[in-house]
Amino acid sequence: MPEVVDVVPCEGGWCVRVHATGEVLHFAGGGEAERRARKLAADASEPVEVRIHDRGGRLVGRWVAQGAAA
Questions:
Q1: Where are the chain's structural domains?
Q2: 3 state SS of 42
Q3: What sign has the CA pseudo-torsion 23, 25, 12, 10?
Q4: CA dihedral 67, 33, 57, 17 (to 10 degrees)
Q5: Angstrom distance (rounded) from CA 61 to CA 33
Q6: Cα–Cα distance between 55 and 21 in angstroms, integer?
Q7: What confidence score (pLDDT) does residue 67 get?
Q8: Residues contacting residue 11 through CB under 8 Å, at least 6 positions apart
Q9: Is the pTM of this model over 0.85?
Q10: What is the Cα–Cα distance from 47 to 56, expressed in whole angstroms?
């Protein structure tokens, strides 16, 4: 099962939540948050599912990146 990274709205902007570590990264814009999530997934040593949510919290996109070591 792949690791999960969510891009979600949060107070003051957007957050990237890394489920495996509990880490939460904060960004002013959604595009910046999505780019960071893509980079984290691409650099991972295992598959990562990236899930993108809109301002209403609805899932609007998802993909699985195989990671650098795959």
A1: 3-65
A2: helix
A3: negative
A4: 60
A5: 14
A6: 24
A7: 72
A8: none
A9: yes
A10: 27
d(CA 68, CA 47) in angstroms, rounded, equals 9
H or E stretch including 30? helix 30-43
- Maximum Cα interatomic distance, the chain, rounded to a whole number of Å: 35
Chunked into runs of 10 residues, the chain (70 residues) has average pLDDT values of: 92 95 96 95 92 96 80
Question: Which residues in 1-70 belong to E strands, given as ranges?
Answer: 3-10, 13-18, 23-27, 48-53, 59-65
What pLDDT score was predicted for residue 69? Answer: 58
